[in-house]
Amino acid sequence: MKHLIFAALVMVGIQTQAQTNSTRIFKNAEGCTVTVEQRRNGITLDIEKQGQKAVVGLLNDRSSGDIVSFCANAGVETDADGMLTLSCDNQSNGGLSTRGQADLIMSGDTLKAVRVIGQVRRMFGWKTDTLIVCESLRERGSR
């Protein structure tokens, strides 16, 4: 777990210079909120829906990312329709085996939908720990 958090902090390039950071907030009618923070090295997405939370990070060059608590080094794929998929299979994570996937549907630089699934291997197979689906997102404000 510690290495995942450390990787997330390094990946997004935490810094104190406010001029390189910007925040955009996307919401939908089902109570989903996605806060997108642009940092020097990439973006983080804080996703929340009905008490479930997930954090996804993506480098600016879209070469890699992470799904905090599930994938420390997620591979990134982009399709022709503007969907970005971050995913990993079976990673060792503090004594547990985890895997995950995050789908980001974009239109230009605007987030339209996001889906995050995180799973943990248990004795009898994979158990879904996190499942968040946010569609029809609209930007609510920026700062």
Which descriptors apply to this entry?
11 strands; 143 residues; eleven-stranded antiparallel β-sheet; disordered N terminus; mainly beta
Radius of gyration: 15 Å
Average pLDDT confidence is 85
The main β sheet shows up as:
11 strands, antiparallel
Question: Approximately how much helix is present in the residues?
Answer: under 10%
- Number of DSSP strands? 11
Q: Which sequence of strands runs across the widest sheet?
A: 10-9-8-7-6-5-4-3-2-1-11
Distance between the termini: 31 Å
How much beta, percentage-wise?
Answer: over 45%
Q: Helix segment count? A: 1
- SS content category: mainly beta
Order of helices and strands: HEEEEEEEEEEE
Global geometry: globular
Contiguous runs where pLDDT drops below 50 for at least 5 residues: 1-19
Question: Summarize this, please?
Answer:
By secondary structure, the protein is mainly β. It has one helix at residues 2-12, and strands at residues 22-27, 33-38, 42-49, 52-59, 65-67, 71-78, 83-93, 96-107, 110-122, 125-134, 138-142. The radius of gyration is 15 Å and the shape is globular.
Write up what this structure looks like.
With 143 residues, the protein is mainly beta. Helices cover 8% and strands 63% of the residues. The protein has 1 helix and 11 strands; from the N terminus they run αβββββββββββ. The chain has one helix at 2-12, and strands at 22-27, 33-38, 42-49, 52-59, 65-67, 71-78, 83-93, 96-107, 110-122, 125-134, 138-142. It has an 11-stranded antiparallel sheet. Strand 2 (33-38) and strand 3 (42-49) form a beta hairpin. The longest helix has 11 residues, at 2-12. The model is unreliable at 1-19 (pLDDT under 50).
